[in-house]
UniProtKB/TrEMBL annotation:
A GO BP annotation: cell division
Keywords: Cell cycle, Cell division, Coiled coil, Cytoplasm
Alphabetized InterPro entries for the sequence: DivIVA_domain, DivIVA_fam
Bias-annotated ranges (Polar residues): 77-86
Coiled-coil stretches: none
Domain of life from the UniProt record: Bacteria
Subcellular location: Cytoplasm
Annotated stretches, region: Disordered: 67-86
Protein name, entry field: Cell wall synthesis protein Wag31
Length: 86
């Protein structure tokens, strides 16, 4: 993955975000509620990514084991010259 800033946005970054206040600014309660919702979603996505990476590694290892066990096997098709079928 490519990140423009070089740093991943993590849930605690969102929760710690601070904004300048202005005389006619946004409702800070709504902003903080939205940021908390966003941080929760980021947290869920990071957990899902960790789970997917773990599962992918398990599948890679299983594939390597399968390839090692079947390294000497050759698949032949009917009609090929090396086929011993009647």
């Amino acid at each position: 993955m490519i990140y423009v800033t070089g740093e991943r946005l993590l849930p605690h970054h969102v929760r710690a975000a601070a904004f300048d206040t202005r005389w006619r600014g946004l409702d800070s309660a709504q902003v903080h509620a939205y940021l908390n919702q966003l941080a929760d979603e980021l947290d869920r996505l990071h957990r899902d990514l960790a789970t997917a990476n773990t599962e992918a590694e398990r599948i890679r290892q299983a594939l390597r084991q399968w390839q090692s066990r079947h390294a000497g096997c050759r698949h032949t098709t009917p009609g090929s010259p090396n086929n011993r079928w009647p």
